[in-house]
Amino acid sequence: MTDSWVALEPGTDPVERVRVLRRAHEAFTSAGTVSRPVRSVVADSWRRSARAGVGPDGTAPVELADGDLGSYRAEHPLARVMPLFRELVGTFAADGEHLMAVCDAHGRLLWVEGHAGARRRADRMNFVPGARWAESAVGTNAPGTAVALDRPVQVFAAEHFARRVQPWTCAAAPVHDPRTGRLLGAVDITGGDGLAHPHSLAFVQAVARAAESQLALLAPAAAPSGALGLTVLGRDEALLLVDGRRVRLSRRHSEILVLLSRHPEGLTGDELLCALYEDESVTPVTLRAELARLRRLLGPGVLGSRPYRLTVPVESDLAAVERRLETGAVTAAATAYAGPVLPASQAPAVARLRRRLADGLRTALIARRDPDLLADWARAPWGEDDLDVWRALAALRPTAAVRSRLAELEAEFAAPPGRLPAPPR
Protein backbone atom coordinates (compact mmCIF):
# COMPACT_ATOMS: atom_id res chain seq x y z
CA MET A 1 0.00 0.00 0.00
CA THR A 2 1.23 3.47 -0.79
CA ASP A 3 -0.10 4.93 2.49
CA SER A 4 0.27 2.63 5.48
CA TRP A 5 -2.05 4.82 7.56
CA VAL A 6 -5.03 4.16 5.26
CA ALA A 7 -6.77 0.83 5.93
CA LEU A 8 -8.08 0.20 2.40
CA GLU A 9 -7.11 1.90 -0.79
CA PRO A 10 -9.81 2.40 -3.44
CA GLY A 11 -10.36 -0.77 -5.46
CA THR A 12 -9.44 -3.18 -2.67
CA ASP A 13 -11.97 -5.98 -2.11
CA PRO A 14 -13.03 -5.55 1.55
CA VAL A 15 -14.35 -9.13 1.84
CA GLU A 16 -11.06 -10.63 0.71
CA ARG A 17 -9.14 -8.21 2.90
CA VAL A 18 -11.14 -9.28 5.96
CA ARG A 19 -10.43 -12.94 5.17
CA VAL A 20 -6.68 -12.30 4.95
CA LEU A 21 -6.68 -10.24 8.15
CA ARG A 22 -8.54 -12.87 10.13
CA ARG A 23 -6.00 -15.51 9.17
CA ALA A 24 -3.19 -13.15 10.13
CA HIS A 25 -4.88 -12.30 13.43
CA GLU A 26 -5.26 -15.98 14.33
CA ALA A 27 -1.62 -16.59 13.44
CA PHE A 28 -0.51 -13.77 15.69
CA THR A 29 -2.68 -14.69 18.68
CA SER A 30 -1.66 -18.34 18.45
CA ALA A 31 2.01 -18.12 17.42
CA GLY A 32 3.00 -14.46 17.80
CA THR A 33 3.93 -14.08 14.14
CA VAL A 34 2.65 -11.35 11.82
CA SER A 35 2.35 -12.01 8.10
CA ARG A 36 3.26 -9.42 5.48
CA PRO A 37 -0.27 -8.26 4.44
CA VAL A 38 -0.81 -6.70 7.86
CA ARG A 39 0.05 -2.98 7.87
CA SER A 40 3.07 -2.10 9.99
CA VAL A 41 1.04 0.30 12.15
CA VAL A 42 -1.35 -2.54 12.96
CA ALA A 43 1.39 -5.13 13.52
CA ASP A 44 3.18 -2.81 15.93
CA SER A 45 -0.08 -2.17 17.76
CA TRP A 46 -0.81 -5.88 18.06
CA ARG A 47 2.62 -6.39 19.60
CA ARG A 48 2.07 -3.55 22.09
CA SER A 49 -1.32 -5.01 22.96
CA ALA A 50 0.15 -8.44 23.60
CA ARG A 51 2.97 -7.00 25.73
CA ALA A 52 0.36 -5.18 27.82
CA GLY A 53 -1.32 -8.52 28.55
CA VAL A 54 -4.45 -7.86 26.49
CA GLY A 55 -6.31 -10.97 25.35
CA PRO A 56 -8.17 -11.18 22.02
CA ASP A 57 -11.39 -12.07 23.81
CA GLY A 58 -11.23 -9.24 26.33
CA THR A 59 -13.68 -6.39 26.83
CA ALA A 60 -13.04 -2.73 27.57
CA PRO A 61 -13.48 -1.96 31.28
CA VAL A 62 -15.90 0.77 32.32
CA GLU A 63 -13.96 2.99 34.75
CA LEU A 64 -15.96 6.22 34.95
CA ALA A 65 -19.66 6.18 35.69
CA ASP A 66 -22.43 8.42 36.96
CA GLY A 67 -21.08 11.32 39.01
CA ASP A 68 -17.42 10.59 38.30
CA LEU A 69 -18.05 10.63 34.56
CA GLY A 70 -20.18 13.75 34.73
CA SER A 71 -17.72 15.78 36.78
CA TYR A 72 -14.77 14.68 34.67
CA ARG A 73 -16.50 15.50 31.39
CA ALA A 74 -17.59 18.89 32.70
CA GLU A 75 -13.99 19.85 33.47
CA HIS A 76 -12.37 18.30 30.41
CA PRO A 77 -11.06 20.81 27.82
CA LEU A 78 -12.78 18.94 24.98
CA ALA A 79 -16.18 19.71 26.51
CA ARG A 80 -15.77 23.20 25.06
CA VAL A 81 -15.67 21.88 21.49
CA MET A 82 -18.40 19.27 21.78
CA PRO A 83 -20.88 21.57 19.94
CA LEU A 84 -18.39 21.70 17.07
CA PHE A 85 -17.94 17.91 17.08
CA ARG A 86 -21.71 17.43 17.03
CA GLU A 87 -22.10 19.87 14.17
CA LEU A 88 -19.34 18.36 12.04
CA VAL A 89 -19.53 14.67 12.96
CA GLY A 90 -22.77 14.05 14.83
CA THR A 91 -25.17 14.46 11.91
CA PHE A 92 -22.88 12.48 9.60
CA ALA A 93 -22.73 9.67 12.18
CA ALA A 94 -26.48 9.56 12.78
CA ASP A 95 -27.37 9.66 9.07
CA GLY A 96 -24.78 7.04 8.14
CA GLU A 97 -25.60 4.62 10.99
CA HIS A 98 -22.22 5.41 12.53
CA LEU A 99 -21.05 6.60 15.93
CA MET A 100 -19.07 9.64 16.97
CA ALA A 101 -16.83 9.12 19.98
CA VAL A 102 -14.55 11.49 21.86
CA CYS A 103 -11.91 10.12 24.24
CA ASP A 104 -9.39 11.64 26.62
CA ALA A 105 -5.61 11.28 26.42
CA HIS A 106 -5.82 7.95 28.27
CA GLY A 107 -8.25 6.45 25.77
CA ARG A 108 -11.32 6.77 28.00
CA LEU A 109 -14.48 7.39 26.03
CA LEU A 110 -16.16 10.55 27.30
CA TRP A 111 -18.92 10.90 24.72
CA VAL A 112 -20.41 8.30 22.36
CA GLU A 113 -23.23 9.61 20.16
CA GLY A 114 -24.86 8.80 16.84
CA HIS A 115 -27.23 6.30 15.30
CA ALA A 116 -29.46 4.61 17.90
CA GLY A 117 -29.11 1.13 16.42
CA ALA A 118 -25.35 1.43 16.20
CA ARG A 119 -25.22 2.57 19.82
CA ARG A 120 -27.18 -0.49 20.95
CA ARG A 121 -24.78 -2.79 19.11
CA ALA A 122 -21.77 -0.90 20.46
CA ASP A 123 -23.10 -1.18 24.01
CA ARG A 124 -22.60 -4.94 23.81
CA MET A 125 -18.82 -4.46 23.49
CA ASN A 126 -18.66 -1.66 26.10
CA PHE A 127 -18.10 1.06 23.52
CA VAL A 128 -19.81 3.42 25.95
CA PRO A 129 -18.96 6.63 27.82
CA GLY A 130 -16.64 5.92 30.72
CA ALA A 131 -15.06 2.81 29.18
CA ARG A 132 -11.29 2.69 28.71
CA TRP A 133 -10.40 1.95 25.10
CA ALA A 134 -6.65 2.44 25.48
CA GLU A 135 -4.52 -0.11 23.65
CA SER A 136 -3.35 -1.37 27.03
CA ALA A 137 -6.96 -2.21 27.95
CA VAL A 138 -8.58 -3.58 24.79
CA GLY A 139 -5.87 -3.67 22.13
CA THR A 140 -5.75 -2.09 18.69
CA ASN A 141 -8.58 0.35 17.96
CA ALA A 142 -8.71 3.79 16.38
CA PRO A 143 -9.21 6.06 19.42
CA GLY A 144 -6.83 4.06 21.63
CA THR A 145 -4.16 3.74 18.98
CA ALA A 146 -4.51 7.39 17.94
CA VAL A 147 -3.67 8.58 21.46
CA ALA A 148 -0.95 5.94 21.84
CA LEU A 149 0.80 7.14 18.66
CA ASP A 150 -0.39 10.75 18.82
CA ARG A 151 -1.36 10.71 15.16
CA PRO A 152 -4.46 9.97 13.04
CA VAL A 153 -5.14 6.29 12.39
CA GLN A 154 -7.72 4.09 10.71
CA VAL A 155 -8.49 0.53 11.85
CA PHE A 156 -10.42 -1.83 9.61
CA ALA A 157 -12.39 -4.89 10.73
CA ALA A 158 -10.05 -7.73 11.77
CA GLU A 159 -7.21 -5.28 12.30
CA HIS A 160 -8.82 -4.75 15.72
CA PHE A 161 -7.07 -6.83 18.34
CA ALA A 162 -10.23 -7.80 20.25
CA ARG A 163 -12.40 -10.22 18.29
CA ARG A 164 -15.72 -8.75 19.34
CA VAL A 165 -14.64 -5.38 17.84
CA GLN A 166 -13.72 -6.86 14.46
CA PRO A 167 -17.13 -6.27 12.82
CA TRP A 168 -16.43 -2.54 13.12
CA THR A 169 -14.24 -0.04 11.30
CA CYS A 170 -13.10 3.25 12.83
CA ALA A 171 -10.94 6.30 12.18
CA ALA A 172 -9.65 8.71 14.83
CA ALA A 173 -7.41 11.74 15.10
CA PRO A 174 -5.76 13.27 18.17
CA VAL A 175 -6.68 16.74 19.43
CA HIS A 176 -4.11 18.97 21.14
CA ASP A 177 -4.15 22.04 23.32
CA PRO A 178 -3.23 24.75 20.78
CA ARG A 179 -1.29 26.74 23.40
CA THR A 180 0.84 24.00 24.94
CA GLY A 181 0.67 21.20 22.39
CA ARG A 182 -0.48 18.80 25.12
CA LEU A 183 -2.52 15.83 23.91
CA LEU A 184 -6.12 16.25 25.08
CA GLY A 185 -7.70 13.19 23.50
CA ALA A 186 -9.10 12.11 20.14
CA VAL A 187 -12.22 12.34 18.00
CA ASP A 188 -13.39 9.11 16.38
CA ILE A 189 -15.92 7.92 13.82
CA THR A 190 -16.93 4.25 14.16
CA GLY A 191 -19.23 2.17 11.98
CA GLY A 192 -19.23 -0.33 9.13
CA ASP A 193 -16.80 -1.24 6.38
CA GLY A 194 -17.80 1.85 4.42
CA LEU A 195 -15.60 3.90 6.73
CA ALA A 196 -12.51 2.06 5.45
CA HIS A 197 -11.88 4.79 2.91
CA PRO A 198 -9.15 7.45 2.75
CA HIS A 199 -11.84 10.12 3.02
CA SER A 200 -12.80 8.94 6.53
CA LEU A 201 -9.27 9.42 7.81
CA ALA A 202 -9.00 12.83 6.14
CA PHE A 203 -12.38 13.76 7.62
CA VAL A 204 -11.44 13.13 11.26
CA GLN A 205 -8.11 14.88 10.72
CA ALA A 206 -9.97 17.95 9.48
CA VAL A 207 -12.36 17.80 12.42
CA ALA A 208 -9.47 17.57 14.88
CA ARG A 209 -7.78 20.58 13.31
CA ALA A 210 -11.04 22.52 13.44
CA ALA A 211 -11.37 21.69 17.14
CA GLU A 212 -7.84 22.92 17.84
CA SER A 213 -8.58 26.14 15.98
CA GLN A 214 -11.77 26.57 17.99
CA LEU A 215 -9.90 26.01 21.26
CA ALA A 216 -7.37 28.65 20.24
CA LEU A 217 -10.16 31.15 19.64
CA LEU A 218 -12.08 30.43 22.82
CA ALA A 219 -11.12 32.80 25.60
CA PRO A 220 -10.00 31.15 28.84
CA ALA A 221 -12.42 31.15 31.71
CA ALA A 222 -13.05 34.72 32.72
CA ALA A 223 -10.84 35.87 35.55
CA PRO A 224 -11.46 38.91 37.73
CA SER A 225 -9.92 42.10 36.40
CA GLY A 226 -6.30 42.45 37.45
CA ALA A 227 -6.00 38.84 38.63
CA LEU A 228 -2.58 37.22 38.78
CA GLY A 229 -1.83 33.89 37.14
CA LEU A 230 0.67 31.67 38.94
CA THR A 231 2.26 28.45 37.66
CA VAL A 232 4.18 26.58 40.35
CA LEU A 233 3.78 22.85 39.63
CA GLY A 234 6.95 21.14 38.46
CA ARG A 235 8.90 24.41 38.41
CA ASP A 236 11.66 25.58 40.75
CA GLU A 237 10.90 29.17 39.76
CA ALA A 238 7.25 30.16 39.38
CA LEU A 239 5.87 31.70 36.21
CA LEU A 240 3.74 34.78 36.91
CA LEU A 241 1.20 36.31 34.55
CA VAL A 242 0.68 39.95 35.48
CA ASP A 243 -0.77 42.73 33.30
CA GLY A 244 -0.38 40.52 30.23
CA ARG A 245 3.32 39.94 30.97
CA ARG A 246 4.89 36.58 31.74
CA VAL A 247 7.57 36.89 34.39
CA ARG A 248 9.80 34.16 35.78
CA LEU A 249 10.17 34.78 39.49
CA SER A 250 13.13 34.14 41.72
CA ARG A 251 12.80 31.18 44.03
CA ARG A 252 12.17 33.37 47.08
CA HIS A 253 9.57 35.48 45.29
CA SER A 254 7.95 32.24 44.07
CA GLU A 255 7.67 31.02 47.66
CA ILE A 256 6.27 34.33 48.91
CA LEU A 257 3.57 34.43 46.24
CA VAL A 258 2.56 30.81 46.86
CA LEU A 259 2.15 31.52 50.57
CA LEU A 260 0.32 34.81 50.15
CA SER A 261 -2.01 33.25 47.57
CA ARG A 262 -2.93 30.66 50.24
CA HIS A 263 -3.67 33.36 52.79
CA PRO A 264 -5.88 36.07 51.29
CA GLU A 265 -6.37 37.43 54.81
CA GLY A 266 -2.65 38.18 54.93
CA LEU A 267 0.37 37.15 56.98
CA THR A 268 2.37 39.13 59.47
CA GLY A 269 6.11 39.57 59.04
CA ASP A 270 6.79 37.03 61.77
CA GLU A 271 4.45 34.48 60.18
CA LEU A 272 6.15 34.90 56.82
CA LEU A 273 9.58 34.54 58.40
CA CYS A 274 8.59 31.24 60.03
CA ALA A 275 6.98 29.98 56.83
CA LEU A 276 9.93 30.87 54.60
CA TYR A 277 13.11 30.33 56.61
CA GLU A 278 14.37 27.35 58.59
CA ASP A 279 17.23 29.49 59.86
CA GLU A 280 15.93 31.47 62.82
CA SER A 281 18.81 33.94 62.48
CA VAL A 282 17.28 35.48 59.33
CA THR A 283 16.20 38.99 60.25
CA PRO A 284 13.00 40.88 59.34
CA VAL A 285 15.20 43.29 57.36
CA THR A 286 16.05 40.50 54.90
CA LEU A 287 12.37 39.68 54.40
CA ARG A 288 11.39 43.35 53.97
CA ALA A 289 14.04 43.73 51.26
CA GLU A 290 12.61 40.72 49.37
CA LEU A 291 9.08 42.11 49.69
CA ALA A 292 10.18 45.53 48.42
CA ARG A 293 11.70 43.95 45.32
CA LEU A 294 8.56 41.85 44.77
CA ARG A 295 6.33 44.94 45.18
CA ARG A 296 8.23 46.72 42.40
CA LEU A 297 7.85 43.70 40.15
CA LEU A 298 4.10 43.36 40.75
CA GLY A 299 3.34 47.02 40.25
CA PRO A 300 1.59 49.54 42.46
CA GLY A 301 -1.23 48.51 44.76
CA VAL A 302 -0.86 44.72 44.36
CA LEU A 303 1.11 43.84 47.49
CA GLY A 304 -0.31 45.31 50.68
CA SER A 305 1.26 45.41 54.14
CA ARG A 306 0.26 45.15 57.79
CA PRO A 307 -0.40 42.31 57.23
CA TYR A 308 1.33 41.37 53.99
CA ARG A 309 -1.35 40.39 51.50
CA LEU A 310 -2.23 40.36 47.82
CA THR A 311 -4.93 42.86 46.92
CA VAL A 312 -5.96 41.09 43.69
CA PRO A 313 -7.15 37.50 43.13
CA VAL A 314 -4.66 34.79 42.20
CA GLU A 315 -5.43 31.80 39.99
CA SER A 316 -2.81 29.06 40.18
CA ASP A 317 -2.32 25.59 38.72
CA LEU A 318 -1.92 24.39 42.31
CA ALA A 319 -5.41 25.59 43.22
CA ALA A 320 -6.85 24.00 40.06
CA VAL A 321 -5.51 20.57 41.04
CA GLU A 322 -6.79 20.97 44.59
CA ARG A 323 -10.29 21.88 43.39
CA ARG A 324 -10.44 18.82 41.18
CA LEU A 325 -9.31 16.57 44.00
CA GLU A 326 -11.89 18.05 46.35
CA THR A 327 -14.70 17.33 43.88
CA GLY A 328 -13.52 13.76 43.25
CA ALA A 329 -12.36 14.48 39.68
CA VAL A 330 -9.20 12.41 40.19
CA THR A 331 -8.40 11.90 36.52
CA ALA A 332 -8.72 15.62 35.83
CA ALA A 333 -6.50 16.37 38.84
CA ALA A 334 -3.84 13.92 37.66
CA THR A 335 -3.93 15.37 34.16
CA ALA A 336 -3.41 18.89 35.49
CA TYR A 337 -0.62 17.89 37.89
CA ALA A 338 2.63 18.91 36.19
CA GLY A 339 4.86 18.00 39.12
CA PRO A 340 5.55 18.87 42.77
CA VAL A 341 5.03 22.40 44.07
CA LEU A 342 8.32 24.33 43.66
CA PRO A 343 10.32 21.09 43.99
CA ALA A 344 13.61 22.76 44.97
CA SER A 345 12.07 24.94 47.68
CA GLN A 346 13.26 24.36 51.26
CA ALA A 347 10.80 26.81 52.79
CA PRO A 348 9.05 24.87 55.59
CA ALA A 349 5.52 25.93 54.65
CA VAL A 350 6.07 25.23 50.95
CA ALA A 351 7.55 21.81 51.72
CA ARG A 352 4.45 20.94 53.79
CA LEU A 353 2.17 22.11 51.00
CA ARG A 354 4.17 20.11 48.44
CA ARG A 355 3.89 16.91 50.50
CA ARG A 356 0.19 17.42 51.22
CA LEU A 357 -0.73 17.85 47.56
CA ALA A 358 1.41 14.95 46.33
CA ASP A 359 0.20 12.62 49.10
CA GLY A 360 -3.43 13.54 48.48
CA LEU A 361 -3.15 12.92 44.75
CA ARG A 362 -1.21 9.66 44.97
CA THR A 363 -3.64 8.34 47.61
CA ALA A 364 -6.55 9.16 45.31
CA LEU A 365 -4.81 7.46 42.38
CA ILE A 366 -4.19 4.29 44.36
CA ALA A 367 -7.82 4.25 45.49
CA ARG A 368 -9.07 4.85 41.92
CA ARG A 369 -7.17 1.74 40.69
CA ASP A 370 -6.68 3.12 37.19
CA PRO A 371 -3.60 1.44 35.65
CA ASP A 372 -3.00 4.20 33.11
CA LEU A 373 -3.01 6.95 35.75
CA LEU A 374 -0.83 4.86 38.06
CA ALA A 375 1.59 4.18 35.21
CA ASP A 376 1.80 7.88 34.38
CA TRP A 377 2.65 8.67 38.02
CA ALA A 378 5.13 5.80 38.37
CA ARG A 379 7.04 6.80 35.25
CA ALA A 380 7.20 10.48 36.12
CA PRO A 381 10.35 11.76 37.88
CA TRP A 382 8.40 12.28 41.11
CA GLY A 383 6.92 8.77 41.09
CA GLU A 384 9.70 6.54 39.82
CA ASP A 385 10.62 5.49 43.38
CA ASP A 386 7.08 5.46 44.79
CA LEU A 387 6.84 1.92 46.14
CA ASP A 388 3.12 2.06 46.99
CA VAL A 389 2.19 3.23 43.51
CA TRP A 390 4.34 0.56 41.86
CA ARG A 391 2.68 -2.08 44.05
CA ALA A 392 -0.76 -0.83 43.07
CA LEU A 393 0.25 -0.79 39.41
CA ALA A 394 1.67 -4.32 39.60
CA ALA A 395 -1.60 -5.59 41.05
CA LEU A 396 -3.49 -4.19 38.07
CA ARG A 397 -0.96 -4.54 35.27
CA PRO A 398 1.60 -7.23 36.15
CA THR A 399 3.76 -6.93 33.05
CA ALA A 400 7.36 -8.09 33.15
CA ALA A 401 8.65 -4.50 33.17
CA VAL A 402 6.39 -3.50 36.05
CA ARG A 403 7.24 -6.59 38.11
CA SER A 404 10.93 -6.02 37.49
CA ARG A 405 10.82 -2.40 38.65
CA LEU A 406 8.77 -3.35 41.70
CA ALA A 407 11.32 -6.01 42.65
CA GLU A 408 14.12 -3.44 42.34
CA LEU A 409 12.30 -0.99 44.61
CA GLU A 410 11.42 -3.60 47.21
CA ALA A 411 15.06 -4.66 47.30
CA GLU A 412 16.17 -1.05 47.72
CA PHE A 413 13.69 -0.39 50.51
CA ALA A 414 14.41 -3.63 52.35
CA ALA A 415 16.82 -3.46 55.31
CA PRO A 416 20.28 -4.92 54.56
CA PRO A 417 20.74 -8.47 55.91
CA GLY A 418 21.74 -8.50 59.55
CA ARG A 419 20.90 -4.86 60.07
CA LEU A 420 17.83 -3.20 61.51
CA PRO A 421 16.18 -0.46 59.51
CA ALA A 422 17.15 3.03 60.54
CA PRO A 423 14.67 4.61 62.96
CA PRO A 424 12.36 7.26 61.48
CA ARG A 425 13.55 10.83 61.81
From TrEMBL:
Gene Ontology MF, one: DNA binding
Looking up SUPFAM superfamilies in the UniProt record yields:
C-terminal effector domain of the bipartite response regulators
Keywords, A to Z? DNA-binding, Transcription, Transcription regulation
> Has keyword DNA-binding?
yes
All copies of domain OmpR/PhoB-type, residue ranges: 244-310
Asked if the record carries the keyword Transcription, the reply is yes
Q: Which SMART domains match?
A: Trans_reg_C
Single GO BP term: regulation of DNA-templated transcription
Official protein name in the record: Transcriptional regulator
